[in-house]
Amino acid sequence: MSGISQRNNIHRIIDANLNRAKEGLRVCEEITRFILDNHRFTALFKKFRHQIDELAREIYPVSALLSQRKSNRDVGRFNSSGELKRNNCKDIFWANIQRIKESLRVLEEFSKLTDTKVAMGFKQLRYKVYEIEKASSKKISSLPDSG
Length: 147
What we know:
The protein is mostly helical. The protein is built from 5 helices and no strands. It is globular and about 50 Å long.
């Protein structure tokens, strides 16, 4: 695999994980905003989404990421076993907080190839997500098991 081809594939990984992390944050933000009515958690999730954008812009031009996006040919596109089963808002929240942490780890690892400062930023953000997960745990767990 040529260096250009490998870089292009890394851009695909970065693009997918930036989207995944921000989408997961948005889902958690909506739950804390509209279901928990919790201003603090809502503001933190929003802040984290914006921090991801700031970190990414430092080393990943949007045009480079978009030019390598191949959503229609993604071999993992239809691999959704387990993603379709959610029983309630708690399930949705926990699935998405996990998605955020995993995506941030991927972003951290692949950013090490380009800029260790940005990689450390993703790592610090991942640890902040661990903290909000712990802090919100009691409130999320108290949600009803239905709906």
